[in-house]
Automatic annotation (TrEMBL):
Top-level taxon in the UniProt lineage: Eukaryota
SUPFAM superfamilies per UniProt: PLP-dependent transferases
Catalysis performed (reactions): glyoxylate + L-methionine = 4-methylsulfanyl-2-oxobutanoate + glycine; L-leucine + glyoxylate = 4-methyl-2-oxopentanoate + glycine; L-tryptophan + glyoxylate = indole-3-pyruvate + glycine; L-kynurenine + 2-oxoglutarate = kynurenate + L-glutamate + H2O
One Pfam entry name: Aminotran_1_2
Chain ranges passing through the membrane: none
Assigned GO CC terms: mitochondrial matrix
Lineage of source species: Eukaryota, Metazoa, Chordata, Craniata, Vertebrata
GO biological process, one term: alpha-amino acid metabolic process
Ranges where the Aminotransferase class I/classII large domain occurs: 65-405
Protein name as annotated: Kynurenine/alpha-aminoadipate aminotransferase, mitochondrial
GO molecular function: 2-aminoadipate transaminase activity; glycine:2-oxoglutarate aminotransferase activity; kynurenine-glyoxylate transaminase activity; kynurenine-oxoglutarate transaminase activity; methionine-glyoxylate transaminase activity; pyridoxal phosphate binding
Cofactor list: pyridoxal 5'-phosphate
Keywords: Aminotransferase, Pyridoxal phosphate, Transferase
InterPro entries named among the record's database cross-references: Aminotransferase_I/II_large, Class-I_PLP-dep_aminotransf, PyrdxlP-dep_Trfase, PyrdxlP-dep_Trfase_major
């Protein structure tokens, strides 16, 4: 594929930072190299000496003085090599991307990756397709770019290919104003909890081929799919090199460490890395080395075993929330059971807009939910939904919260 058509002028103009190239060269060279190049500070002046991190049911992660110096120093912009290699092997075994020119880089959370991917591809006035309601962080990254966000209808199975075909029929497949980019959250959507099945993904991919669009697959809840087998990803279907996938460790290892990954066609991942060079330089070396040590000692088997434990926790939380919803909200609300993720998307009966209800009345009743409007392209339009997270509260707290919510709805209805 020729990616030139997809790049913004800013992204196309990015050039490697000469000092970054030297730093990366130096890190690959034998110790006999005397380098007066680069501008790395001397880690002997840094106050941190060593570290030891206890791991639940696992081996301790340790940094002696030598490895600590590396953890405190600048590192390559695409990621620490041993972490990248481990992740590339994992991507291969989970998705086996058919495009031989697939590459990966580490990002500071998937949000950084997404934002840089959008900035690489989206010009003011461009038509961008997504299935709203969608993640508010995506809207926050896209809306200031002055693009036209076009909604593709979705249901509890995510983006609807028939609706996509309908939207795309406004353009001919070669018209220059046709959308170049389609964004979707394929599993446990934030906020809807919706997950796409394989057939829908294949149909969407085919339409992307027909209109020569790129697909941004934002999949932070991939590892939180409650049902096996996990649905094949867009990345696993990508024979052309038109899928850019963002993965996140936020929901499975730590959200505060800020670790994510961009996987996609090499020429596009390269553009993202050039942007990283010019902004954060790289994700924290310490974070990457700490996680890399753990992953290497776990192996893929140990990692997937850890994931299984996380899945079981969230599945129980989901079931508890669904039980309480059934108990308290049956007559006043509607919802679908999510197959992945951490959210329940609830439609309140007889309420036109939840914004005011949540803002003014919910705190009085001591229950907080996210009003659905914040996930809409036009947040001023009335929205009868709220998003409830089953990630943090105990089953008892969720039950009490839904009891309070049911009172709130009944009062607002009358
Ligand atoms: N500004 C100047 C003038 C610098 O020399 C450097 C680092 N060499 C930076 C910014 C970037 O610093 P940081 O590592 O804090 O991103
Ligand atoms: N994408 C979606 C759909 C999310 O729900 C989130 C987090 O809530 C992110 C991206 C950001 O994830 P990260 O913490 O990896 O930046």
């Amino acid at each position: 594929m020729n990616y030139a058509r997809f790049l913004t002028a800013v992204s196309a103009a990015r050039k490697p930072s000469p000092i970054r190239i030297l730093t990366e060269l130096q890190q690959r060279s034998p110790p006999s190299l005397i380098s007066l190049a680069g501008g790395a500070p001397n880690p002997n002046t840094f106050p941190f000496l060593s570290a030891s991190i206890q791991v639940r049911n696992g081996p301790t992660v340790t940094f002696d003085e030598t490895s600590m110096k590396r953890a405190l120093q600048y590192s390559a912009s695409n990621g620490i090599p041993e972490l990248l290699t481990w992740m590339k092997d994992l991507q291969k075994s989970l998705h086996n991307p058919p495009n031989p020119h697939t590459d990966m880089c580490v990002t500071t959370g998937s949000q950084e990756g997404l934002c840089k991917v959008f900035e690489m591809l989206v010009n003011p006035g461009d038509n961008v397709l997504l299935d709203a309601p969608t993640y508010s962080g995506t809207l926050a990254a896209l809306q200031p770019m002055g693009c036209n966000l076009i909604n593709v209808s979705s249901d509890e199975h995510g983006m609807d290919p028939a609706a996509l075909r309908q939207v795309l029929s406004r353009w001919s497949p070669s018209e220059s104003s046709r959308p170049k980019v389609l964004y979707t959250i394929p599993n446990g959507g934030n906020p809807t909890g919706a997950s796409m099945n394989e057939q829908r993904k294949r149909d969407v991919y085919q339409l992307a081929q027909q209109y020569d669009m790129l697909i941004i697959e934002d999949d932070p809840y991939y590892f939180l799919q409650f049902e096996k087998p996990w649905a094949p990803t867009f990345l696993s279907m990508d024979v052309d090199g038109r899928v850019i996938r963002t993965d996140s460790f936020s929901k499975i290892l730590s959200s505060g460490l800020r670790l994510g990954f961009v996987t996609g066609p090499k020429p596009l991942v390269e553009r993202v890395v050039l942007h990283i060079q010019a902004s954060t330089m790289h994700t924290s070396s310490f974070t990457q080395l700490m996680v890399s040590q753990l992953l290497h000692s776990w192996g893929e088997q140990g990692f997937l075993q850890h994931i299984q434990g996380v899945i079981e926790f969230y599945r129980e939380q989901r079931d508890a929330m669904l039980g309480s919803a059934e108990k308290w909200l049956k007559d006043v609300a509607e919802w679908h059971a999510p197959k992945a993720g951490m959210f329940l998307w609830i439609k309140l009966k007889g309420i036109t807009d939840t914004q005011q209800l949540i803002q003014e009345k919910a705190l009085e009743k001591e229950v907080l939910l996210v009003p659905g409007g914040v996930f809409m392209i036009d947040s001023s339009e009335p929205c009868p939904y709220v998003r409830a997270a089953f990630s943090l509260s105990s089953p008892e707290k969720m039950d009490e919260a839904f009891r309070r919510l049911s009172l709130l709805i009944r009062e607002a209805q009358s």
